[in-house]
Design a protein that fits this description.
The protein is of the alpha+beta class. It has helices at about 5-40, 45-65, 75-90, 95, 100-110, 115-135, 140-190, 200-215, 240-250, 285-345, 350-380, 385-400, 420-440, 475-485, and strands spanning about 220-225, 230-235, 260-265, 270-275, 405-410, 445-450, 455-460, 490-495, 500-505, 520-525.
């Protein structure tokens, strides 16, 4: 069973139950009317009306099923008027009157007390209007035959509305969550399939390629409108800020060869494509670019939203693992250390004390590694700036290990996209952790240059080198996967003076121009 069918079954449970109940009420009332007609003096005369009532019951049930997710009160009102008119105008009202109770009962099950009272009053008015328009012989007998069934319908409908109130309230409270669950199940299915990815960076690159092929532009930059109305580039170069200004500039004042194509959602414009490098824009080119943008808009919008959801879920999961490590295995290993200390203090054997001392040192090392792992899990990009997070992380490593860390962090322009910044931080953490654990280095150099779109990250050490992949160690593979996620290239090479160089660069990485608003040049020791 697929996630979608499971979700639908859960969401339709209360609705399906109420539909079955109202259908059973109609069938029971129709059966009761049929039995009364067959036991009467002239069952043949009632047969056509029974067929009409059966059709009315089928139509009522069908309309309820078709609108099961959006209950419509007019169905109950229409059924009350139609059924009451049909029954009252027939001479077999005494036999068929049982069906008059159906509309108020259905209203009670489906809609509640207010609709039940309204349907009852409307049925009474319909009885009065029908009899007044064409008074039959024995008007009082018609009224006497109709009123008891209407009263029964009102009583049962009020009871049903009270009994089903909690179910309707629960359904109403769960409706937004059911819709969200169904949507997330669909997104999960799409993200898990091989034919449709939800990687905003890759989709932005694909859109850029498609726009260049369709219009002949030199390049395009895709912007997303954030909730605070700021613009965030999913791709681009050093002139992202200038291109963002093209969006706010009137068309006749834009840079020659530049055009802005909106990314349109179902209800609003959620982003823009800024295209540059076309000598002359024509209405045909505008229309062609808009068609390409519309083709990618829904997928790219979904990918951007999915990135946010994935980031929140990943952060929560990392924090959960950090809490479990701190409260579980870390505390147990600390407890083992106390036991080893006790063994060393009570033993008179020199060899036992030496072994206990070695074991105590190893336990201390393990506890230190676990604390570093917890710190890695909890450390995230703060205020959208990667440089500040790298500086904090390097400062903590230097303080805990005595490793001399040299920082050169130059971050200008808008912040990197949240997912890209997080992935770059994780690559830096893994590279620094390898230096700390394996290189026996004295110095660590961390260099970052970013203009908001392109980046160049380098982590160097003066250790023993030999940083190739090892069996059953997945650090290097994980770094390569993270680099691929942000469209960057990872290289691990020997350092000319000994040690290792880990570099992460976007394909068009270049040093930022102008002043660095967030530059850091210092050594931490």
């Amino acid at each position: 069973m697929t996630p979608i069918s499971t979700t639908n079954a859960g969401a339709l449970g209360p609705v399906l139950q109420s539909w079955r109940t109202t259908t059973a009420v109609r069938v029971f009332a129709l059966s009761l009317a049929t039995g009364s007609a067959l036991s009467g003096n002239d069952p043949v005369e009632s047969a056509p009306m029974l067929v009409v009532l059966a059709l009315a019951a089928a139509v009522g049930s069908l309309l309820e099923w078709m609108t099961r997710n959006r209950p419509a009160h007019w169905h109950a009102v229409g059924e009350a008027v139609a059924v009451t008119t049909l029954v009252v105008t027939t001479e077999s009202i005494q036999a068929l009157g049982a069906y008059l109770a159906v509309p108020p009962i259905v209203a009670g099950v489906r809609h509640g007390l207010v609709t039940t009272l309204n349907v009852f009053l409307l049925s009474c008015l319909t009885v009065a209007a029908t009899l007044a328009a064409d008074p039959p012989s024995g008007v009082l007998s018609h009224i006497a035959s109709a009123l008891p069934w209407l009263a029964i319908g009102l009583g049962v409908g009020m009871l049903a509305s009270w009994q089903s109130r909690s179910t309707r309230s629960l359904t109403a409270r769960q409706a937004p969550y059911a819709a969200a669950h169904q949507l997330m199940a669909r997104v999960h299915q799409l993200a898990s399939s091989g034919w449709l990815g939800l990687n905003s960076t890759a989709l932005a690159a694909d859109l850029d390629t498609a726009l260049r092929a369709a219009t002949g532009c030199a390049r395009s930059t895709i912007f997303v409108v954030e909730p605070d109305e700021t613009l965030r580039a999913l791709n681009g170069g050093e002139d992202v800020a200038r291109l963002a200004e093209e969006i706010r500039t009137p068309r006749h004042q834009r840079t020659p060869g530049a055009a802005v194509v909106p990314l349109r959602g179902t209800r609003h414009t959620w982003g823009y494509c800024v295209l540059v490098g076309v000598p002359r824009w024509t209405p045909e080119l505008d229309e062609l670019a808009q068609d390409v943008a519309d083709e990618f808009a829904v997928r790219l919008d979904t990918a951007v939203l999915f990135d946010d959801v994935r980031t929140l879920a990943t952060s929560e999961e990392r924090n959960r693992i950090a809490r479990e490590m701190h409260d579980g295995v870390a505390q147990e290993i600390v407890g083992l250390g106390y036991i080893v200390d006790e063994i060393a203090s009570v033993s008179d054997d020199e060899q036992t004390r030496e072994l206990a001392s070695e074991l105590r040192s190893e336990i201390t090392r393990l506890v230190s590694e676990i604390r570093f792992s917890i710190f890695d899990l909890r450390h995230d990009v703060t205020d959208g700036r990667l440089a500040a997070s790298l500086a904090d992380y390097a400062r903590e490593v230097s303080h805990a290990t005595g490793l001399r860390v040299h920082l050169s962090l130059a971050e200008s322009g808008p912040p990197l996209p949240p997912r890209a910044a997080t992935e770059v931080l994780r690559v830096a953490q893994e590279a620094i952790a390898n230096v700390r654990k394996h290189s026996r280095a004295r110095n660590l150099w961390v260099t970052l240059e970013s203009d908001g779109s392109n980046l160049d990250l380098t982590v160097e050490d003066d250790g023993v080198g030999n940083a190739g992949p090892r069996d059953h160690h997945w650090g290097l593979q994980t770094m390569r996967e993270r680099a691929a996620n942000v469209g960057a290239q990872l290289a691990v090479t020997p350092r000319h003076d000994g040690g290792t160089v880990v570099s992460l660069r976007s394909p068009t990485a270049a040093p930022p121009e102008g002043d660095n608003a967030h530059g850091h040049h210092r050594a931490t020791g």
